[in-house]
Amino acid sequence: MTQLPTRRGLLFGTAAVSAGALLAGCTSNESSDNDSDKADNNQPAADDKPGKAVTIGFAGPQADHGWLNAINDNAKNRAKKYSDVTLEITEGSNDTAQQIGQIETLINKKVDVLVILPADGKALTQVGLKAMRAGIPVINLDRIFNSPQAYRCWIGGDNYGMGLNAGTYIGEKLKDKPNARVIELAGLDNLELTQQRTQGFDDALKNYPNIKKVARQAAEFTVESGQAKMAQLLQAQSDFDALWNHDDDQGVGALRAIEQAGRDDFLMVGGAGALSAFQAIEADNSVLKATVLYPPTMAASAIDLARALGQGKGVGGMAEFEIPASITLYSAVVDKENVGQYMSTGFE
Fold it and tell me: Which of 13, 203, 260, 345 is the most buried (most CB within 10 A)?
């Protein structure tokens, strides 16, 4: 999950416009297929005019995380909506050499467009360049290639924005509390995305001089690591007012540790948008009060963009004849006030 952070002045709208909304008028056709997953049901309806047949190759990493599995599901189910789209999807791998081989197979099949979520953007830049030089436009999904020449369009989430919005939400909740203390349960520290989320969080807290971040612990985006690292934080910090957890999957473990410790004296904000987090927010019976989105619906929008490229179309609602070079999705804050609106997008 990476890259291309943007600033937003308005952080707390009840709705966020995803890239898919821009693509609503982009040449598509509704299918009678009702097998789409929940995350795709609220995608904008496309127009009913089938266009040129397009074969889209989709290559992503191994779906070993709830968010990555949702990425695959969104791509598959979005493609099913179009009678003029054929989706060639690879098995997925976290081994860069294997993923490169899978993409080269798609290039050799002469697919019309490629959608690639690289396991490692730097390592896969050359195969992105190879596709582009072969005349196959690439939609680079989320983890960005090192060179803009390796893709026609990048679409992904806003890691800095996640931290910024989480920090602002917590700041507004604690702005009247003297000497407020917050802690942070981060993700993998060797990933740039983790550093971006922390930077956004720290920058937001600068606007609240009464708040001090007193501890930070890095986990590994897993339930087990979330539980273990949260237990360590709780043992080390007996008094704090808020927690920001970077990832809802590891947040499941974090909540277990919190419950086992019998703690309910602080508020927690999660990250990504898992169904379990939405359900906990709706139930309002735990410390988890909000989460900031990193929407896997970006994969559905990537299919829309790939289809538009294959058919030589632009994006509905925009004056340009071509699709944009990059689209950064907004990290909306979901709390009890608006969770019902986002429930159908939650991933498991």
Answer: 345
Q: What is the mean pLDDT of each run of 10 residues along the chain (348 residues)?
A: 34 35 41 40 52 96 88 95 96 93 98 96 96 98 96 97 98 98 96 94 98 97 96 96 97 97 97 96 97 96 96 88 95 98 93
Q: Tokens standing for 197?
A: 């989320």
* Cβ atoms within 10 Å, residue 12: 13
Domain at 159-293: CATH code: 3.40.50.2300
Q: What are phi and psi of 91, to 5 degrees?
A: -70, -30
Tokens representing 250 are: 């590891």
Contacts of 340 (CB under 8 A, 6+ apart): 282
Angle between helices 248-261 and 66-80 (to 10 degrees): 140
pTM: 0.83
* Domain parsing of the chain, residue ranges: 19-157+297-320, 159-293
Q: Regarding the domain delimited by 19-157+297-320, which CATH topology (the fold level of the hierarchy) does it fall under?
A: Rossmann fold (3.40.50)
